[in-house]
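Input record, target 12 of the design panel.
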Protein backbone atom coordinates (compact mmCIF):
# COMPACT_ATOMS: atom_id res chain seq x y z
CA UNK A 1 0.00 0.00 0.00
CA UNK A 2 1.34 3.41 -0.98
CA UNK A 3 1.45 5.62 2.12
CA UNK A 4 2.18 8.95 0.44
CA UNK A 5 0.53 11.25 -2.10
CA UNK A 6 0.26 9.70 -5.54
CA UNK A 7 0.17 13.06 -7.32
CA UNK A 8 2.32 16.15 -7.03
CA UNK A 9 0.50 18.73 -4.90
CA UNK A 10 3.19 21.41 -5.15
CA UNK A 11 2.52 24.74 -6.79
CA UNK A 12 3.97 25.24 -10.24
CA UNK A 13 6.67 27.88 -10.00
CA UNK A 14 7.00 30.69 -12.50
CA UNK A 15 9.96 32.96 -11.78
CA UNK A 16 8.41 35.80 -13.76
CA UNK A 17 4.99 35.77 -12.04
CA UNK A 18 4.24 35.54 -8.31
CA UNK A 19 1.95 32.74 -7.22
CA UNK A 20 -1.55 34.09 -6.82
CA UNK A 21 -3.51 34.01 -3.60
CA UNK A 22 -6.48 31.71 -4.17
CA UNK A 23 -10.11 32.04 -3.09
CA UNK A 24 -9.82 29.17 -0.62
CA UNK A 25 -6.95 30.96 1.11
CA UNK A 26 -9.06 34.10 1.45
CA UNK A 27 -11.96 31.98 2.71
CA UNK A 28 -9.63 30.46 5.30
CA UNK A 29 -8.63 33.96 6.43
CA UNK A 30 -12.23 34.83 7.29
CA UNK A 31 -12.00 32.73 10.44
CA UNK A 32 -9.19 34.94 11.63
CA UNK A 33 -11.37 38.05 11.39
CA UNK A 34 -13.34 36.39 14.17
CA UNK A 35 -10.13 35.46 16.01
CA UNK A 36 -8.81 39.03 15.96
CA UNK A 37 -12.18 40.32 17.23
CA UNK A 38 -12.09 37.76 20.03
CA UNK A 39 -8.60 38.88 21.01
CA UNK A 40 -9.69 42.53 21.23
CA UNK A 41 -12.66 41.62 23.38
CA UNK A 42 -10.52 39.37 25.55
CA UNK A 43 -8.09 42.20 26.29
CA UNK A 44 -10.94 44.60 27.03
CA UNK A 45 -12.50 42.11 29.43
CA UNK A 46 -9.20 41.32 31.17
CA UNK A 47 -7.56 44.74 31.24
CA UNK A 48 -4.92 43.90 33.84
CA UNK A 49 -1.20 43.05 33.61
CA UNK A 50 -2.06 39.35 33.76
CA UNK A 51 -4.76 39.85 31.13
CA UNK A 52 -2.24 41.57 28.85
CA UNK A 53 0.18 38.66 29.24
CA UNK A 54 -2.50 36.07 28.58
CA UNK A 55 -3.91 37.91 25.55
CA UNK A 56 -0.41 38.33 24.14
CA UNK A 57 0.15 34.59 24.47
CA UNK A 58 -3.16 33.82 22.77
CA UNK A 59 -2.40 36.27 19.96
CA UNK A 60 1.00 34.63 19.42
CA UNK A 61 -0.71 31.24 19.13
CA UNK A 62 -3.26 32.55 16.63
CA UNK A 63 -0.55 34.25 14.59
CA UNK A 64 1.63 31.15 14.61
CA UNK A 65 -1.16 28.91 13.32
CA UNK A 66 -2.02 31.34 10.55
CA UNK A 67 1.61 31.96 9.56
CA UNK A 68 2.52 28.28 9.34
CA UNK A 69 -0.52 27.70 7.16
CA UNK A 70 0.51 30.57 4.87
CA UNK A 71 3.94 28.99 4.42
CA UNK A 72 2.31 25.65 3.59
CA UNK A 73 0.01 27.16 0.95
CA UNK A 74 3.07 28.88 -0.50
CA UNK A 75 4.41 25.42 -1.32
CA UNK A 76 1.22 23.47 -1.96
CA UNK A 77 -1.38 24.23 -4.61
CA UNK A 78 -4.63 25.20 -2.83
CA UNK A 79 -6.59 24.42 -6.00
CA UNK A 80 -5.93 20.70 -5.50
CA UNK A 81 -8.82 18.92 -3.82
CA UNK A 82 -6.83 17.36 -0.98
CA UNK A 83 -5.23 20.71 -0.11
CA UNK A 84 -8.64 22.38 -0.11
CA UNK A 85 -9.94 19.72 2.25
CA UNK A 86 -6.96 20.35 4.51
CA UNK A 87 -7.75 24.08 4.63
CA UNK A 88 -11.43 23.44 5.33
CA UNK A 89 -10.54 21.10 8.19
CA UNK A 90 -8.15 23.74 9.48
CA UNK A 91 -10.96 26.31 9.32
CA UNK A 92 -13.14 24.14 11.52
CA UNK A 93 -10.35 23.75 14.07
CA UNK A 94 -9.65 27.50 13.86
CA UNK A 95 -13.31 28.21 14.67
CA UNK A 96 -12.98 26.09 17.81
CA UNK A 97 -9.72 27.84 18.70
CA UNK A 98 -11.24 31.29 18.14
CA UNK A 99 -14.36 30.50 20.14
CA UNK A 100 -12.23 29.30 23.05
CA UNK A 101 -10.05 32.44 23.18
CA UNK A 102 -11.97 34.51 25.78
CA UNK A 103 -11.96 31.61 28.26
CA UNK A 104 -8.75 29.84 27.25
CA UNK A 105 -7.25 30.42 30.71
CA UNK A 106 -10.47 29.35 32.37
CA UNK A 107 -12.93 26.63 31.35
CA UNK A 108 -11.94 26.25 27.68
CA UNK A 109 -8.22 25.68 28.00
CA UNK A 110 -8.35 22.15 26.63
CA UNK A 111 -10.48 23.26 23.66
CA UNK A 112 -7.94 25.94 22.78
CA UNK A 113 -4.94 23.65 23.23
CA UNK A 114 -6.56 20.75 21.40
CA UNK A 115 -7.48 22.90 18.40
CA UNK A 116 -4.02 24.48 18.32
CA UNK A 117 -2.19 21.13 18.44
CA UNK A 118 -4.54 19.52 15.93
CA UNK A 119 -3.87 22.32 13.45
CA UNK A 120 -0.12 22.46 13.93
CA UNK A 121 0.65 18.75 14.03
CA UNK A 122 -2.08 17.71 11.59
CA UNK A 123 -0.92 20.17 8.95
CA UNK A 124 2.70 19.03 9.33
CA UNK A 125 1.72 15.35 8.97
CA UNK A 126 -0.17 16.29 5.81
CA UNK A 127 2.98 17.92 4.47
CA UNK A 128 4.98 14.76 5.12
CA UNK A 129 2.37 12.81 3.16
CA UNK A 130 2.38 15.36 0.31
CA UNK A 131 6.12 15.99 0.01
CA UNK A 132 7.69 12.53 0.40
CA UNK A 133 7.97 11.66 -3.30
CA UNK A 134 8.20 15.18 -4.71
CA UNK A 135 10.43 17.39 -2.56
CA UNK A 136 12.99 15.40 -0.52
CA UNK A 137 14.67 18.48 0.95
CA UNK A 138 11.43 20.02 2.15
CA UNK A 139 10.26 16.60 3.33
CA UNK A 140 13.26 16.47 5.66
CA UNK A 141 12.47 20.05 6.72
CA UNK A 142 8.97 18.97 7.76
CA UNK A 143 10.28 15.94 9.57
CA UNK A 144 12.14 18.36 11.81
CA UNK A 145 9.15 20.70 12.08
CA UNK A 146 6.85 17.83 13.05
CA UNK A 147 9.18 16.72 15.84
CA UNK A 148 9.24 20.25 17.29
CA UNK A 149 5.47 20.76 17.01
CA UNK A 150 4.68 17.35 18.46
CA UNK A 151 7.00 18.07 21.41
CA UNK A 152 5.40 21.41 22.20
CA UNK A 153 2.00 19.87 21.51
CA UNK A 154 2.46 17.71 24.61
CA UNK A 155 3.08 20.86 26.65
CA UNK A 156 0.05 22.65 25.17
CA UNK A 157 -2.23 19.70 25.94
CA UNK A 158 -0.75 19.23 29.40
CA UNK A 159 -1.49 22.88 30.06
CA UNK A 160 -5.02 22.40 28.77
CA UNK A 161 -5.60 19.71 31.38
CA UNK A 162 -4.00 21.88 34.10
CA UNK A 163 -5.27 25.02 35.79
CA UNK A 164 -4.06 28.38 37.06
CA UNK A 165 -0.35 29.06 37.22
CA UNK A 166 0.46 25.54 36.03
CA UNK A 167 -1.37 26.16 32.75
CA UNK A 168 0.26 29.57 32.37
CA UNK A 169 3.75 28.15 32.92
CA UNK A 170 3.32 25.20 30.58
CA UNK A 171 1.88 27.36 27.82
CA UNK A 172 4.62 29.96 28.23
CA UNK A 173 7.22 27.20 27.84
CA UNK A 174 5.43 25.70 24.82
CA UNK A 175 5.01 29.09 23.17
CA UNK A 176 8.63 30.04 23.79
CA UNK A 177 9.82 26.85 22.11
CA UNK A 178 7.41 27.37 19.21
CA UNK A 179 8.61 30.94 18.67
CA UNK A 180 12.32 30.10 18.75
CA UNK A 181 12.07 27.00 16.55
CA UNK A 182 12.35 28.71 13.12
CA UNK A 183 15.34 30.76 14.32
CA UNK A 184 16.93 27.49 15.50
CA UNK A 185 16.33 25.93 12.09
CA UNK A 186 14.23 23.23 13.78
CA UNK A 187 17.46 21.48 14.75
CA UNK A 188 16.75 17.82 15.47
CA UNK A 189 19.22 15.14 16.66
CA UNK A 190 20.28 12.98 13.74
CA UNK A 191 18.61 15.21 11.16
CA UNK A 192 20.51 18.45 11.74
CA UNK A 193 18.86 21.78 11.06
CA UNK A 194 17.03 23.42 8.18
CA UNK A 195 18.58 26.38 6.42
CA UNK A 196 16.76 29.30 4.87
CA UNK A 197 17.93 28.03 1.47
CA UNK A 198 15.72 24.98 2.09
CA UNK A 199 12.69 27.26 2.22
CA UNK A 200 12.27 27.89 -1.51
CA UNK A 201 9.25 30.12 -1.16
CA UNK A 202 7.51 32.46 -3.55
CA UNK A 203 8.21 35.84 -1.97
CA UNK A 204 5.39 37.69 -3.71
CA UNK A 205 2.77 35.22 -2.51
CA UNK A 206 3.85 35.36 1.13
CA UNK A 207 4.00 39.15 1.01
CA UNK A 208 0.43 39.27 -0.30
CA UNK A 209 -0.75 36.84 2.38
CA UNK A 210 0.72 38.95 5.17
CA UNK A 211 -0.73 42.12 3.65
CA UNK A 212 -4.10 40.41 3.78
CA UNK A 213 -3.73 39.75 7.51
CA UNK A 214 -2.83 43.39 8.12
CA UNK A 215 -6.05 44.30 6.29
CA UNK A 216 -7.96 41.79 8.43
CA UNK A 217 -6.69 43.46 11.58
CA UNK A 218 -7.42 46.97 10.28
CA UNK A 219 -10.89 45.90 9.19
CA UNK A 220 -11.53 44.41 12.62
CA UNK A 221 -10.44 47.62 14.32
CA UNK A 222 -12.84 49.66 12.19
CA UNK A 223 -15.65 47.19 12.90
CA UNK A 224 -15.08 47.20 16.67
CA UNK A 225 -14.91 51.00 16.74
CA UNK A 226 -18.01 51.38 14.60
CA UNK A 227 -19.99 48.94 16.74
CA UNK A 228 -18.95 50.72 19.94
CA UNK A 229 -19.84 54.14 18.47
CA UNK A 230 -23.24 52.86 17.35
CA UNK A 231 -24.14 51.90 20.93
CA UNK A 232 -23.21 55.27 22.42
CA UNK A 233 -25.12 58.51 22.83
CA UNK A 234 -23.56 60.76 20.21
CA UNK A 235 -21.99 63.86 21.70
CA UNK A 236 -19.25 66.16 20.46
CA UNK A 237 -16.73 64.15 22.47
CA UNK A 238 -17.81 60.73 21.21
CA UNK A 239 -17.92 61.98 17.62
CA UNK A 240 -14.41 63.39 18.01
CA UNK A 241 -13.20 60.11 19.52
CA UNK A 242 -14.75 58.16 16.65
CA UNK A 243 -13.13 60.47 14.10
CA UNK A 244 -9.76 60.10 15.82
CA UNK A 245 -10.06 56.30 15.73
CA UNK A 246 -10.99 56.32 12.04
CA UNK A 247 -8.11 58.63 11.13
CA UNK A 248 -5.68 56.44 13.10
CA UNK A 249 -6.78 53.33 11.17
CA UNK A 250 -6.50 55.29 7.92
CA UNK A 251 -2.98 56.48 8.77
CA UNK A 252 -1.95 52.93 9.67
CA UNK A 253 -3.27 51.71 6.34
CA UNK A 254 -1.44 54.50 4.51
CA UNK A 255 1.88 53.87 6.23
CA UNK A 256 1.89 50.21 5.28
CA UNK A 257 0.15 50.03 1.92
CA UNK A 258 1.26 53.32 0.37
CA UNK A 259 4.99 53.17 1.06
CA UNK A 260 5.97 49.78 2.46
CA UNK A 261 4.02 46.74 1.34
CA UNK A 262 4.37 46.72 -2.45
CA UNK A 263 7.89 48.15 -2.65
CA UNK A 264 9.25 45.86 0.04
CA UNK A 265 7.53 42.80 -1.40
CA UNK A 266 9.20 43.47 -4.78
CA UNK A 267 12.61 43.69 -3.16
CA UNK A 268 11.85 40.61 -1.08
CA UNK A 269 10.74 38.57 -4.09
CA UNK A 270 14.00 39.39 -5.89
CA UNK A 271 16.21 38.64 -2.87
CA UNK A 272 18.79 35.86 -3.27
CA UNK A 273 17.65 34.25 0.01
CA UNK A 274 13.91 34.91 0.32
CA UNK A 275 13.56 32.28 3.03
CA UNK A 276 15.76 34.26 5.40
CA UNK A 277 13.89 37.50 4.77
CA UNK A 278 10.53 35.76 5.12
CA UNK A 279 11.50 34.22 8.44
CA UNK A 280 12.25 37.62 9.97
CA UNK A 281 10.11 40.11 8.04
CA UNK A 282 6.91 38.12 7.85
CA UNK A 283 7.03 35.36 10.46
CA UNK A 284 8.21 37.63 13.30
CA UNK A 285 8.05 41.34 12.43
CA UNK A 286 4.52 41.32 11.03
CA UNK A 287 3.28 40.06 14.38
CA UNK A 288 4.24 43.46 15.85
CA UNK A 289 2.28 45.24 13.11
CA UNK A 290 -0.86 43.21 13.71
CA UNK A 291 -0.44 43.40 17.49
CA UNK A 292 -0.21 47.18 17.28
CA UNK A 293 -3.50 47.34 15.38
CA UNK A 294 -5.26 45.15 17.95
CA UNK A 295 -3.96 47.24 20.84
CA UNK A 296 -5.04 50.44 19.07
CA UNK A 297 -8.56 49.02 18.61
CA UNK A 298 -8.77 48.32 22.33
CA UNK A 299 -7.61 51.87 23.07
CA UNK A 300 -10.21 53.34 20.69
CA UNK A 301 -13.04 51.60 22.51
CA UNK A 302 -11.84 52.77 25.92
CA UNK A 303 -11.57 56.34 24.67
CA UNK A 304 -15.08 56.16 23.20
CA UNK A 305 -16.46 54.99 26.54
CA UNK A 306 -14.85 57.78 28.61
CA UNK A 307 -13.45 60.49 26.31
CA UNK A 308 -12.94 63.16 29.01
CA UNK A 309 -11.59 60.87 31.73
CA UNK A 310 -7.97 61.15 32.79
CA UNK A 311 -5.92 58.22 31.57
CA UNK A 312 -4.85 55.58 34.03
CA UNK A 313 -1.54 53.85 33.40
CA UNK A 314 -3.05 50.92 31.51
CA UNK A 315 -5.23 53.01 29.22
CA UNK A 316 -2.38 55.42 28.48
CA UNK A 317 -0.22 52.42 27.63
CA UNK A 318 -2.65 51.14 24.99
CA UNK A 319 -3.46 54.59 23.57
CA UNK A 320 0.23 55.29 22.93
CA UNK A 321 1.46 51.70 22.74
CA UNK A 322 -0.74 50.66 19.81
CA UNK A 323 0.64 53.28 17.38
CA UNK A 324 4.15 52.84 18.81
CA UNK A 325 4.13 49.08 18.30
CA UNK A 326 2.79 49.55 14.79
CA UNK A 327 5.45 52.12 13.87
CA UNK A 328 8.17 49.93 15.35
CA UNK A 329 6.96 46.88 13.41
CA UNK A 330 6.60 48.78 10.15
CA UNK A 331 10.00 50.41 10.63
CA UNK A 332 11.68 47.05 11.24
CA UNK A 333 9.88 45.60 8.21
CA UNK A 334 11.22 48.37 5.95
CA UNK A 335 14.66 48.25 7.56
CA UNK A 336 15.21 44.62 6.56
CA UNK A 337 15.52 45.64 2.93
CA UNK A 338 16.66 49.25 3.35
CA UNK A 339 19.97 50.81 4.41
CA UNK A 340 18.52 52.49 7.53
CA UNK A 341 15.52 52.69 9.83
CA UNK A 342 13.00 55.19 8.43
CA UNK A 343 13.64 58.63 10.03
CA UNK A 344 9.92 59.42 10.00
CA UNK A 345 9.26 56.34 12.13
CA UNK A 346 12.03 57.24 14.57
CA UNK A 347 10.61 60.74 14.96
CA UNK A 348 7.11 59.33 15.42
CA UNK A 349 8.30 56.95 18.12
CA UNK A 350 10.13 59.79 19.88
CA UNK A 351 6.99 61.95 19.85
CA UNK A 352 4.91 59.10 21.30
CA UNK A 353 7.48 58.66 24.08
CA UNK A 354 7.28 62.41 24.76
CA UNK A 355 3.48 62.15 25.02
CA UNK A 356 3.91 59.49 27.68
CA UNK A 357 5.32 62.16 30.00
CA UNK A 358 1.97 63.99 30.09
CA UNK A 359 -0.34 61.02 29.50
CA UNK A 360 -1.60 60.69 33.08
CA UNK A 361 -2.71 64.32 33.33
CA UNK A 362 -4.32 64.52 29.89
CA UNK A 363 -7.94 63.64 28.98
CA UNK A 364 -8.15 60.45 26.95
CA UNK A 365 -9.68 62.23 23.96
CA UNK A 366 -6.78 64.69 23.81
CA UNK A 367 -4.17 61.96 24.28
CA UNK A 368 -5.79 59.80 21.60
CA UNK A 369 -6.00 62.73 19.21
CA UNK A 370 -2.32 63.51 19.76
CA UNK A 371 -1.31 59.89 19.11
CA UNK A 372 -3.42 59.91 15.95
CA UNK A 373 -1.81 63.18 14.87
CA UNK A 374 1.67 61.70 15.29
CA UNK A 375 0.71 58.68 13.19
CA UNK A 376 -0.74 60.92 10.47
CA UNK A 377 2.47 62.97 10.40
CA UNK A 378 4.51 59.77 9.94
CA UNK A 379 2.20 58.71 7.10
CA UNK A 380 2.54 62.07 5.35
CA UNK A 381 6.31 62.25 5.81
CA UNK A 382 6.81 58.70 4.58
CA UNK A 383 4.60 59.28 1.56
CA UNK A 384 6.39 62.51 0.58
CA UNK A 385 9.80 60.88 0.97
CA UNK A 386 8.72 57.89 -1.08
CA UNK A 387 7.52 60.12 -3.92
CA UNK A 388 10.68 62.19 -3.80
CA UNK A 389 12.80 59.05 -4.06
CA UNK A 390 10.63 57.71 -6.88
CA UNK A 391 10.94 61.00 -8.78
CA UNK A 392 14.73 60.96 -8.35
CA UNK A 393 14.80 57.41 -9.72
CA UNK A 394 12.61 58.40 -12.67
CA UNK A 395 9.67 56.19 -11.64
CA UNK A 396 6.07 57.05 -12.43
CA UNK A 397 3.84 57.87 -9.46
CA UNK A 398 0.07 57.87 -9.34
CA UNK A 399 -1.64 61.08 -8.31
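The sequence produced for target 12 reads:
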Amino acid sequence: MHLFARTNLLRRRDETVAARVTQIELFFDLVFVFAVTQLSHTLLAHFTPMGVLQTTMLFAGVWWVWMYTSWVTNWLDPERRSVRLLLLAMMLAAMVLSTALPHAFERRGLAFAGAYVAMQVGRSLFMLWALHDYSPRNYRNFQRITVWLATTGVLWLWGGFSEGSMRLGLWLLALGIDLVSPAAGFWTPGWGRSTTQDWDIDGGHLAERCSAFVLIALGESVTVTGAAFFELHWTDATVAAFLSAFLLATAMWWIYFDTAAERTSRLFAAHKDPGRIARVAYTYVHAALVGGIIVAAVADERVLDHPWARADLGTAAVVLGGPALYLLGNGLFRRLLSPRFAPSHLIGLALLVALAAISLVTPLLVLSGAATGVTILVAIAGSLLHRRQAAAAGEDEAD
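The chain has two domains: 23-198, 203-392.
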